[in-house]
Specification:
It contains 10 helices and 12 strands. The protein is α/β, with parallel strands linked by helices. A hairpin with a 2-residue loop joins strand 5 and strand 6. Helix 1 crosses helix 10, helix 4 packs across helix 5 and helix 4 crosses helix 9. The mean pLDDT is 96. Bound molecules: NADP nicotinamide-adenine-dinucleotide phosphate.
Length: 290
C-alpha cells in the first residue's frame, strides 16, 4: 500500500501494552509487498474497554485484529463464532470480521507446530515433552503437541495446581497420551528432564529487561539429544537456552513461532500467506531481534 485512500481497510492489534510490538512493522511490510490496500495499527486497549473495542470492530468495519496479552481470554465472550481449538483453549489471538460476523481463531497453535517442524526439524508424533509453565502459552503448546500425537506430556509450574488442571483437562480429551504434572521441585522434574525429547519453557522468565534471571529449573539433566525451546524471543538467547546450548542441546527461541502465528493471521484476513523469510530480513534491518 503506497497511499491511504477512501478504500483503505483497517487491520490491527488489541493488547495492553502494545508499544513494543513488532506486529505493525511486519504486517504493514507484507501488506505493501502484496499490494493490499490495508493499514495495520496497534491499539492499546485497557482491560475495561475490551467489550467496546470489539464492538468497534463491527462499527468501524475493521477487517481483522490480532489479540494479545492480556485480552486473549476476555474477547472470546464477545465473538459470534469461535473456532474449535480456540474454544477449547478459551483463548483467541485472531479475529476475522466476515461481513459483520466476528470469528475467533488461535493461530499460536499452528505457529508453534510450524516452528518445531520447520526450524526445529522436530517431528512431534511419538515424542516425550516437558512443558515449563501452565499459563495461556503453555495451554496452546499443549494443544499443539496433542493435535500432532505426542506420546508423553509433562507440565510443571510454580503453582502446581495450575499444572494439574491443564493435565486433567487435556488427558480427558486425549486419553491415548500419557500425562503428568507437578511443581518446580527437582525430585519431580529431574528424571523427566533426562528422558524427554523436547523441553519447552513457556514462562516469561529471562525476558527483557530481566535477562540475567536464571532458569526456573536446574538444567543439569539437559543433554545433547534434546531440543530446548523458549517462547521468549527477546533476548535471542535466554539463560535456559544458554545453559542448554552449553550442554550440546539444540535450542530455539520463540521468534519463529511469533512470525508463523502472524503469517497465519495475515492469511485468514487476506487469503495471502506472507513471505516469512522477508520478515527476518526486515527485523535484521529494523530491530535488534534477529
Ligand atoms: P501467562 O498466562 O501469564 O503464564 C505465565 C506462566 O509462567 C505461568 O504458568 C506462571 O506461573 C509462570 N511464571 C511466571 N513467572 C514465573 C517465575 N518467576 N518463575 C516461575 N514461573 C513463572 O503468560 P503466557 O501468555 O502463557 O505467556 C508466557 C510467555 O510466553 C510470555 O513471555 C510471552 O511473551 C511468551 N509467548 C510467546 C509467544 C511467541 O509467539 N513466541 C506466544 C505466546 C506467548 P504461575 O501460574 O504459577 O504464576
Amino acid at each position: 500500500m503506497s497511499t491511504v485512500d477512501s478504500g483503505t481497510g483497517l487491520l490491527g492489534l488489541f493488547g495492553h501494552p502494545v508499544e513494543h510490538s513488532i506486529s505493525p512493522l511486519i504486517h504493514n511490510q507484507a501488506l505493501k509487498k502484496h499490494n493490499l490496500n490495508f493499514v495495520y495499527l496497534a491499539f492499546d486497549i485497557k482491560p475495561e474497554a475490551v467489550q467496546s473495542a470489539v464492538a468497534g470492530i463491527r462499527s468501524f468495519g475493521i477487517k481483522g485484529v490480532n489479540v494479545t496479552i492480556p485480552h486473549k481470554k476476555k474477547v472470546v465472550e464477545y465473538l459470534d463464532i469461535v473456532e474449535d481449538t480456540a474454544q477449547k483453549l478459551k483463548a483467541v489471538n485472531t479475529i476475522v470480521n466476515d461481513e459483520g460476523c466476528l470469528k475467533g481463531y488461535n493461530t499460536d497453535i499452528a505457529g508453534f507446530q510450524r516452528m518445531l517442524e520447520k526450524d526445529g526439524q522436530f517431528i512431534i508424533k511419538g515424542k516425550k515433552v516437558l512443558i515449563i509453565g501452565a499459563g495461556g502459552a503453555a495451554r496452546a503448546v499443549c494443544s499443539a503437541l496433542c493435535e500432532k500425537d505426542a506420546a508423553e506430556l509433562y507440565i510443571i509450574n510454580q503453582t502446581p495446581e495450575k499444572a494439574l488442571r491443564v493435565v486433567e483437562k487435556w488427558s480427558a480429551t486425549y486419553p491415548e497420551i500419557e500425562f503428568g504434572g507437578g511443581g518446580l521441585t527437582e525430585e519431580f522434574y529431574g528424571p523427566l528432564l533426562e528422558k524427554v525429547d523436547l523441553v519447552v519453557d513457556t514462562t516469561p522468565v529471562g525476558m527483557e529487561p530481566n535477562v540475567e534471571q536464571p532458569p526456573v529449573i536446574k538444567t543439569g539433566n539437559i543433554h545433547s539429544g534434546q531440543l530446548v525451546v523458549d517462547l521468549v524471543y527477546n533476548p535471542r538467547e535466554t539463560t535456559i537456552l544458554q545453559e542448554a546450548s552449553k550442554k550440546g542441546a539444540r535450542t530455539l527461541n520463540g521468534l519463529p513461532m511469533l512470525l508463523y502465528q502472524a503469517a497465519e493471521s495475515f492469511h485468514l484476513w487476506t487469503g495471502v500467506y506472507p513471505d516469512v523469510e522477508g520478515w527476518y530480513d526486515l527485523l535484521k534491518k529494523q530491530s535488534d531481534l534477529y
